């Protein structure tokens, strides 16, 4: 039997209150939050976002874009052609101080790295682009690099996460 998370109970309760009050309740959870093993990692992602001053759901949406919360990617059974591994698709050659196959260590590391990129570039979009394409490419192109993968990466993430 699967146990519901506290946030799920809260949403159910709010829906019941709305229905009992005569109103209609429409509760939607973004499809990316229901993918793969997302429920196992969303609390740690939210905590890391809070700890590092990252906008709500930004790191979590990046994790989805990187791994789709698929167990085979998170475990390292499936690696990218570039050698990226784990939930946050970290390349060990560039980031030797973290085990990318430890999802919770990778989440903390990725949050710290993303916050560092934000401090460097002063923009969440540029920080996300730098996470994907590398900070050198963001500097080289003085903005989001013209790589199709990076352009799509930034577009897809910010289509789901609104950042002021």
Short description:
This protein is an all-alpha fold.
Work out the strand percent.
under 5%
- The CATH topology of the largest domain is given as Lysozyme
Return the CATH architecture of the largest domain. Orthogonal Bundle
Q: Work out the count of structural domains.
A: 2
Please report the number of helical segments.
8
Order of secondary-structure elements: HHHHHHHH
Report the average pLDDT across residues: 87
CATH class of the largest domain: Mainly Alpha
Q: Which bin fits the share of residues in helices?
A: 55-70%
Can you tell me the overall shape? Answer: globular
Report on this structure:
This protein is an all-alpha fold and 164 residues long. The chain has two domains: 1-30, no CATH class; 35-160, Lysozyme (Orthogonal Bundle). It is 56% helix and 0% strand. It has eight helices and no strands. Helix 2 (38-52) packs parallel to helix 5 (103-121), helix 3 packs across helix 8 and helix 5 packs across helix 6. The longest helix is centred in the last third of the chain and has 19 residues, at 103-121. It is globular and about 35 Å long. Residues 1-21 have low confidence and may be disordered.
């Amino acid at each position: 039997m699967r146990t519901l998370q506290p946030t799920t109970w809260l949403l159910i309760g709010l829906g019941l209150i709305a229905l009992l009050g005569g109103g209609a309740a429409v509760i939607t959870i973004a499809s990316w939050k229901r993918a793969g093993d997302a429920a196992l990692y969303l609390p740690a992602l939210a905590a890391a976002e809070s700890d590092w001053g990252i906008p709500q759901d930004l790191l979590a949406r990046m994790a989805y874009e990187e791994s789709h919360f698929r167990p085979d990617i998170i475990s390292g059974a499936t690696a990218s052609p570039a050698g990226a591994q784990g939930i946050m698709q970290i390349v060990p050659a560039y980031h030797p101080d973290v085990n990318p196959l430890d999802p919770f260590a990778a989440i903390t590391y990725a949050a710290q790295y993303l916050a560092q990129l934000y401090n460097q570039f002063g923009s969440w979009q540029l920080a996300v682009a730098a996470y994907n394409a590398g900070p050198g490419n963001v500097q080289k192109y003085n903005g989001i690099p013209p790589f199709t993968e990076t352009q799509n990466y930034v577009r897809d993430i910010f289509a789901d996460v609104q950042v002021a």
